[in-house]
Specification:
Layout: H1 2-13, H2 21-59, E1 66-69, E2 74-80, E3 84-89, E4 92-97, E5 101-106
């Protein structure tokens, strides 16, 4: 009974104003726009920046660079072709796609960086 009395008072306190359907549509489209912009800056833009950096890294790859492949193979680049790279790991020589190279750990002709422990 008390709950009914409270609900009756609060229902009368708010004005019963109906928004224009066009205004509701604009609010909804605005929210979708804000969400779309947010998703672009949170998901799409960082991913495209990372892909661009990876492509630049692959273009700069040259023989003698030490690389790590997506399979975890640590190797030295022997030669670079259009779409593939010939690498040497231990006593094995492999030809892998350029896209399989995930990181260049050391550039040819540059001194190795001291790692901080």
């Amino acid at each position: 009974m008390i709950l009914n009395a409270i609900l009756a008072q609060t229902a009368g306190a708010t004005p019963a104003v109906q928004d224009d359907p066009r205004a509701q549509m604009l609010k909804t489209l605005g929210m979708f726009g804000v969400m779309g912009v947010g998703l672009y800056f949170m998901l799409i833009r960082p991913q495209s920046k990372k892909a661009k950096q990876h492509a630049e890294m692959l273009k700069a790859m040259r023989p003698g660079d030490k690389v790590v492949t997506s399979g975890g193979v640590y190797a030295i680049v022997v030669s670079v072709k259009d779409k593939t790279v010939v690498i040497r790991s231990a006593e094995t020589k492999l030809e892998v796609l350029k896209s399989a190279v995930t990181e260049i750990t050391e550039r040819a002709g540059e001194p190795a960086k001291a790692e901080a422990s």
